[in-house]
Design goal:
alpha+beta, 2 helices, globular, about 15% helix, 5-stranded antiparallel beta sheet
């Protein structure tokens, strides 16, 4: 499953970050990993932007990030818990 597919309130674990398309190069993959998107890290999908689109507000540890959809589509996750909001 991709981070971009998580519903609001869902908890997951990062599996890996990869280059999903031409916009996400190795530098972007490395930057996402440096920000904390590394295998085994818990992530929480907080909410989506207007109309359920961009940006996606996600939390890794104590840090809140706003990701573009293309970035979230480059992060594979394993769903651990879903909270209905």
């Amino acid at each position: 499953m991709l981070l971009s597919e998580l519903p609001n309130g869902a908890h997951a674990l990062v599996e890996r970050v990869f280059s999903a398309n031409q916009e996400i190069d190795s530098v972007t993959v490395q930057r996402l990993e440096e920000l904390g998107f590394i295998a085994g890290e818990p992530v929480l999908m907080l909410r989506r932007g207007p109309g359920g689109r961009e940006p996606l507000a996600v939390q890794i540890g104590e840090t809140l990030f706003a990701l573009r959809l293309v970035e979230a589509q480059s992060i594979a996750v394993t769903l651990t818990e879903t909270v209905t909001v």
